[in-house]
Write a structure and sequence with these properties.
Shape: globular
CATH architecture of the largest domain: 2-Layer Sandwich
CATH class of the largest domain: Alpha Beta
Bound molecules: adenosine monophosphate, glycine
Strand content: 25-35%
Number of strands: 23
Number of helices: 13
Helix content: 25-40%
Length: 425
């Protein structure tokens, strides 16, 4: 079977790494991919949201399954596009249709969904330009800090957490009246602040049954001690030590089951990943958000821990036989540390030659923003490499990731030296 993976980050390299291990997979294509995927698969330089280009590729290369990495093609309806096309309709797409992707594409929709199906989440109300004054009045009923969320996709920047009521009111006005995030903030969700520790749980579903994948914790801030600007993620750890059996069974009963049955009741035929962003508050889970894809860099620790054939699981998703599939996870801990371009998440330079990649033997290097340039590998993005290692403990795995990173060099490279700092003694 030939498979196409859409995307170009560390997440997609991790998918590729797992899929090429499957006996049932013939050739993996990645569009557009990076310098890491090109070593084990074939990269094709097309944009995943150019659906006609994706169609041409699928037909030319006899692709029999498409796995969608990022949210944009899903929210724009790539799965619906396949189903509506005579030549593509029988090719399974791993990832929800537009209706399911709204769980990520609209915070207002996902909050209403959680409320309707009794899924624990922060209390909230939504406002538009017309109800700006009511929004300000609602803010007065809450305690600081204040959480404002642009309803639509805003490149990960649409959530503001403000300490003062005055700032919250003026930001609300900026979002609603001055379109701070464009049309994404035409509606704004205001919600209560949840005080706890964050983690993520990932679910793979065929719409009927589900598998709960390993939990992970992501380190989102650029600076050590979780300081500074938000990034796509600077490192991740799986499993999460405080997500014990008791907590995970609450997640399954209070969050995963009602989410799957809620989707069924809404007649949303969801086949793909659900990334559940959670806050652990005194041992109880609250949903912060849903994403309709895997996380990055969480995938770089979650997928390597899955021992089962990932293609077999995807086939189960496509045929709605996921409940019959074997699912095994290693008890070992996996950690990943992101190596980024100096300056990220603000302006940074690209095109820096990376050395030492072949010297790493104790870790798996997942490429993110890299490309090949005349026989060398150069940087091409903010997040460049994810250094994943296994160990018997977080400390053990992290020490391997950090030893491996010492072998890598490029001009102005940066990484956090304290991934896992809050989980280790
Ligand atoms: P989101 O895009 O909804 O995941 O929000 C981005 C980040 O903002 C989350 O990862 C949390 O760290 C934080 N956040 C979002 N909602 C809340 C909330 N209600 N209480 C506390 N922190 C939140
Ligand atoms: N690492 C967070 C995300 O993928 O959204």
């Amino acid at each position: 079977m030939n498979i196409l993976i859409l995307g170009s980050g560390g997440r997609e390299h991790a998918f590729t790494y797992k899929l090429v291990q499957s006996q049932k997979v013939n050739q993996v294509y990645v569009a557009p991919g990076n310098a890491g995927t090109s070593q084990i698969a074939i990269n094709i330089a097309i944009n995943p949201t150019d659906f006609l280009a994706v169609k041409a590729l699928v037909l030319n290369r006899h692709i029999e399954m498409v796995v969608v990495g990022p949210e944009a093609p899903l929210v724009e309806g790539i799965h619906d596009f396949f189903l509506a096309d005579e030549e593509l309709k029988n090719i399974p797409v791993i990832g929800p249709k537009k209706d399911g992707a709204t769980l990520e594409g609209s915070k207002d929709f996902s909050k209403a969904f959680m409320t309707k199906y009794g899924i624990p989440t922060a209390q909230y109300q939504s406002f538009t330009r017309e109800s700006l004054e009511e929004g300000k009045t609602f803010l007065e009923t809450l305690n600081a800090p204040y959480v404002l969320k642009a309803d639509g996709l805003a490149a990960g920047k649409g959530v503001l957490i403000l300490e003062s009521l005055e700032d919250a009111k003026s930001e609300l006005e900026e979002m609603l009246s001055n379109q701070k995030f464009g049309s994404a903030s035409a509606t704004v969700v205001i919600e209560e602040f949840l005080d706890g520790i964050e983690l993520s749980v990932f679910v793979l579903t065929d719409g009927k049954s589900y598998k709960i994948l390993p939990s992970a914790k992501d380190y989102k801030r650029i600076g050590e001690g979780d300081k500074g600007l938000n990034t796509g993620g600077m490192g991740a750890i799986s499993p999460v030590p405080f997500a014990n059996d008791d907590f995970l069974s609450k997640v399954e009963e209070q969050v995963v089951k009602p989410t799957i049955t809620g989707l069924q009741k809404e007649k949303i035929d969801y086949r793909g990943f659900i990334f559940v962003g959670l806050m652990n508050m005194n041992g109880n889970p609250y949903v912060i958000e849903y994403n309709v894809r895997m996380g990055d860099p969480e995938t770089e620790v979650v997928l390597p821990r899955i021992n089962s054939d990932i293609f077999d699981l995807f086939e189960g998703v496509a045929n709605q036989t996921l409940d019959q599939k074997e699912f095994c996870v290693t008890t070992e801990t996996a950690t990943t540390v992101m190596i980024v371009s100096g300056g990220y998440p603000e302006a940074y330079e690209k095109g820096k030659e990376i050395s030492g990649l072949d010297d790493v033997d104790q870790s798996i290097i997942f490429h993110a923003g890299t490309k090949e340039n005349q026989g060398t590998v150069v940087t091409s993005g903010g997040r460049v490499l994810a250094m994943t290692s296994f160990g018997n403990s977080i400390e053990d795995a992290l020490s391997k990731s950090y030893r491996s990173i010492k072998k890598i060099h490029f001009d102005q490279m940066y990484y956090r030296k304290d991934i896992g700092f809050d989980l280790t003694s």
